[in-house]
Structures are given as structure tokens and as C-alpha cells.
Specification:
The chain is an alpha+beta fold and 450 residues long. Helix content is 20%, strand content 26%. The strands form 5 sheets. Strands 2, 3, 4, 6, 8, 11, 12 and 23 form an 8-stranded antiparallel sheet that branches. Strands 7-1-24-14-15 form a 5-stranded mixed sheet, with no helix packed on it. A 5-stranded mixed sheet has the order 21-20-19-18-22, covered by helices on one side. Strand 2 and strand 3 (96-100) form a beta hairpin. Helix 1 packs across helix 2.
Length: 450
């Protein structure tokens, strides 16, 4: 059974989902965000005699009363030309599109433009000043929030009718931000909590770290990378390509001068080049399906279904079938996944649907594939721990290398990187609090520390 803290964390995630957050919070719960929407875990001091449901109700009622929150942006680069941006959906203003203006305190709610690709009517580039400088910003309650940074050149945000915010894209070579060095962190701030994480699900860009301080002055930290971290990752990918001949080094993107700009995730690489990694997982997947034709794989759903056994029937050797655990839904089934399915976690057998049991198995099964743990234990995720992840020659080497480059090993490297054994240590690089005071987000990696 999950520990009390695990149960509190899940209640926390469910509450965030109810507010309409569309970022990373609910990945392991089975609600995969879209690409354009894309959480050290601790809890504040609580009365452990209270059931988690009452804790949630009390904290929701007692915290976040002001409706505004402080975010500090710090320049830890070597450049004096660094910009910050804060975007999201304003929860107290009808979920309207929100950007923070350049003064760091004035909200901007764009009006509906008459045409696609319209320019913003306000300046939303927040100058961070010289290296070491910190700018204090004030935001309203936001869902699907992102904190963006760019170095050297401001980012270009555009508007489509709706209004809908057109964010910088790494997938479109014609995007005005394509050759700009940028990155972002994800967050939500609602009536109950603040939740933030650093994300490498789509790409590795500028090094970013998080420090969340609560009202008791306790600090949670996600360390991020040093300023040399992206190059360390690039070097690791080049070395991996030399070992196995796969397209890992092709994930490296340089600017027009040949300098390292960003590193794509395998899923982003496949999005741009569908033939990449096509057969990469084939042998491993075949071994997994063969193993569980004579053994049962137990998935700890960490939900009402508890432990669910799955096997590969002799008459359907390409399909994993799981028990229904007494529920009225059809048996969850999983055909053999492709490389795209595994790296994206949201296509083929890993696409969520109407069966809730299937939707909670998907994160745990796809995480086990990315971490290559399905041949190590007949139980997932509780059968293995982070020291055993990525040890098979066929694994998500991008995730392995990116985790190793982060000083504390934390950060979302694929959509379900928040899948954690009961009582285990999260790998996703997140901070959260029911009683937050301020969030410090630093960019650049100079002076990065655990």
C-alpha cells in the first residue's frame, strides 16, 4: 500500500487537475498533455493523524488567499542580454491567455486578433540585467504556466484567433525563435498550491534551477545543470552513437555559427524525422513479450486497482493482456509498441482512452520501457529503483545522459518520468507546496549546486 505521503501527493495532483492545469502534473495519473501544453518532493508540516482528504481540504482553505504569488528570475549566465517571460491561463479571469509585461508586475490579457500570427500589443520581455541580478515578478493564479528565458535575443510570441498564444517552437525551422537559445520551466499556481518542474521532455536548452520557499522558510531545490551541462549531454550522445551506431548524436542542434544551441529528445527527433530509431526497440520489445508469455508482470497501479497481473497469451503473442481487478471495464490490452510509442508515451498502445484502468497502467508500463526495467523484475514500478534504470544496452539513453548531467539527477526526460515506486524518490525535478511563499527560478547554470 502506498505511504501517507504518496497518497497526499496524488491528492495534490488530482486537485491540480481539477483546476484545469494542463502541464506536467498528471502524467503518471494517465492524462498526457499535448506537445504545446507541456513536479525532491516534500510536504509542509502536517498533523499525521489527519486523513489525507482532510489535510487537502484544510490546506486548500487556509492557503493562497491573496491570489498573487512572487516569482524571482535570476540571471546566472555570462550575458547581460537575458530575457524572462511568464505565460499561462489566468484562473481568476475566465482562463484567459496571460502574459506578464516587461515591468514584471502588470498583467497582459491579449484581445482576440483578426488574423493568425498577430503581434503582441504589449512588451512582455522582462530584462534580467547583468549576471547575478534578480528580478522580482508578481503573478495571478495561473494554470499551464511556463517561465521562459532567452539569451542574446528576445523571444517572439504571436497570437492566433481565440485568442491563442503561439509559443516558440523547436519543430518549425521558419519559427522566428528557431535559432534563439531558450528554455523554460513549467508550473501551476492555484488556490491550493504551487507546483513547478524543469522539463526536458521536448528538448534540453538553457540550464534552469528551482528554489521554492514556503511560509515556514523551508526551501525545496531542483539543482539543474551547470553552464557546461548541455555540452556534457552532447558529448554523451556522441559517445553513445559511437557505441551503437544509432541517431543519438543527430539530436544535437547547432546554431548558424556551429555552436551548440539545444538537444532534442528522441521523440522530438522522431517528430521531425520519422525514420529515426524505427527498429531501435524491436529486439527488446520481443524479449519482454516472450518473457511474459510464461510469467506474469505485476503492475502496481498505485490506485484502486492495486496490483494488476498481465501476461502475453499464447494465442495473442503480440498483445499484453491485464486483469480487470473486478472492474466493469474491458481487459486492458497492449500490442507491441514501436519506438515512437515508447519515446512519446502517448501513441499506439500508450494512447489514453475511456478505460481508466488502462490509463493508469500506461504511465507505469511506458516508464518501464523507457528505463528498460521489464527484464529485471516481474513487478513495476515497485520492483526496481533508480540505480537499475537505463542499464540495458537498449534504453532511453537521452534520459540516462540528461539525468546524469543534472547535479541532483532530477528532471522530466520523458512524459512519465514522474512514475515512482511507493516510497521512492521522484526523478522528475519538481517542487511543490500547499503553503508557498516564493519561487526562485535561475537560468544559466553559473554557480549551480545541489
Amino acid at each position: 500500500m502506498a505511504s501517507l505521503i504518496d497518497r497526499i501527493k496524488r491528492l495534490f495532483k488530482r486537485n491540480a487537475d481539477k483546476t484545469g492545469h494542463t502541464g506536467s502534473l498528471n502524467r503518471s495519473a494517465g492524462t498526457r498533455p499535448t506537445k504545446e501544453q507541456q513536479q525532491q518532493k516534500s510536504v509542509p508540516p502536517l498533523d499525521r493523524s489527519e486523513p489525507p482528504e482532510e489535510i487537502q481540504q484544510r490546506t486548500t482553505a487556509d492557503t493562497m488567499a491573496s491570489g498573487t504569488f512572487t516569482i524571482q528570475l535570476r540571471n546566472d549566465t555570462n550575458s547581460s542580454t537575458v530575457y524572462g517571460y511568464i505565460t499561462g491561463l489566468a484562473l481568476d479571469s475566465g482562463n484567459r491567455v496571460f502574459l506578464l509585461q516587461a515591468d514584471g508586475k502588470t498583467p497582459y490579457y491579449p484581445t482576440n486578433p483578426s488574423s493568425t500570427g498577430s503581434k503582441l500589443e504589449k512588451n512582455c520581455s522582462i530584462p534580467l540585467g547583468s549576471p547575478g541580478n534578480t528580478v522580482t515578478c508578481t503573478i495571478p493564479r495561473l494554470a499551464g504556466g511556463r517561465i521562459w528565458f532567452s539569451v542574446g535575443t528576445p523571444l517572439t510570441f504571436l497570437l492566433n484567433p481565440g485568442p491563442a498564444l503561439v509559443e516558440p517552437s523547436i519543430f518549425n525551422p521558419a519559427d522566428p525563435n528557431h535559432y534563439t537559445n531558450f528554455g523554460f520551466a513549467e508550473f501551476t499556481y492555484n488556490a491550493a498550491q504551487v507546483f513547478a518542474n524543469i522539463s526536458y521532455v521536448d528538448f534540453v536548452g538553457l540550464p534552469i534551477s528551482l528554489d521554492l520557499t514556503d511560509t515556514a522558510n523551508n526551501v525545496q531545490r531542483v539543482a539543474g545543470m551547470t553552464n557546461y551541462g548541455p555540452q556534457t549531454i552532447a558529448n554523451g550522445l556522441i559517445a553513445q552513437t559511437r557505441r551503437d551506431g544509432r541517431r543519438w548524436s543527430s539530436l544535437i542542434v547547432n546554431d548558424k555559427a556551429g555552436n551548440l544551441l539545444r538537444i532534442l529528445s528522441p521523440n522530438s527527433g522522431i517528430t521531425l524525422n520519422p525514420d529515426w530509431f524505427q527498429t531501435y526497440w524491436t529486439d527488446y520489445v520481443n524479449q519482454v513479450y516472450s518473457r511474459y508469455s510464461s510469467n506474469a508482470l505485476t503492475v502496481n497501479t498505485q490506485a484502486v486497482w492495486r496490483d494488476v497481473p498481465g501476461t502475453v497469451p499464447a494465442n495473442a503473442s503480440s498483445t499484453f493482456t491485464f486483469a480487470t481487478a473486478g472492474q466493469p471495464n474491458p481487459q486492458p490490452t497492449f500490442p507491441k509498441p514501436s519506438a515512437k510509442d515508447i519515446f512519446s508515451c502517448n501513441s499506439g498502445p500508450f494512447a489514453t482512452g475511456s478505460n481508466p484502468e488502462t490509463n493508469v497502467i500506461i504511465p507505469r508500463l511506458s516508464a518501464a520501457f523507457n528505463r528498460s526495467t521489464l527484464l529485471l523484475s516481474d513487478v513495476t514500478p515497485n520492483g526496481t529503483n533508480p540505480t537499475q534504470y537505463y542499464q540495458n544496452p537498449t534504453t532511453n539513453h537521452y534520459a540516462r545522459i540528461v539525468h546524469a548531467a543534472n547535479l541532483d539527477g532530477k528532471g522530466y526526460t520523458f512524459p512519465y518520468d514522474d512514475v515512482t515506486p511507493d516510497g521512492g524518490v521522484g526523478q522528475e525535478g519538481a517542487v511543490f507546496s500547499f503553503e508557498p511563499k516564493s519561487l526562485l527560478v535561475a537560468v544559466g547554470g553559473n554557480g549551480a549546486h545541489v
